[in-house]
Amino acid sequence: MSRINKTFLLLFVTIILSLTILILLNGQPVTKSTGKQVPMPAFIKATPAPTPLPTPTITIKTTSQISPDGSMELMLKAKTENTGEQTYELSVKDVNKQAPTQIFKENWPQNISLSIPFNTWAPDHKYFFVTKQTGLPATPPAHYLVFQNSGAGFGEDKYLDVTELFLAKELPYELDEVTGWAAPGLLLVNTKKPDSGEQGPSYWFEIYSNHFIQLSTRF
Question: What's this model's pTM, rounded to 2 decimal places?
């Protein structure tokens, strides 16, 4: 083979190899670092970050009232969670003792509240009453609950609901307000006329008998 033929053969082989390499390179993706974020293929879904759970929050409010002779203290602890549920706890503390005695504890929804009136204690501090507000357009809107300071109940009941007892008597008046104690074992109850809302007579509520005694004078 002449030298010219060898040169043409070598050139031909070189061209064939070059074309083969180009064909192979065109069939493969070429990665080039550009510093830009390459989008993920559509069939690959990114995993979303987990949603953080809200941190539970608890609000505690404490109120108290001393008995007339200063020997007893009624304490109300209201614990409210961010779920709306509320826990009310009533405790009585003898000033001569260190630990209070739990009288009542119950969970209620957010629309119900419990409060201690200023004149909560009976004169002999054997009883006390608290006010339960329902937060609903009911008649009457408040329930007045009577407890014994010892924590003992009234038969099978933890407390006396003066409002429910008044309704059960079917008197011709609506209970307006329980204003306080007239004497040991006697609560003073004011009423109103159901049609006009005008003042009605006052009653004594006798703890021992659960009777309502109408008075001739409005207090």
Answer: 0.72
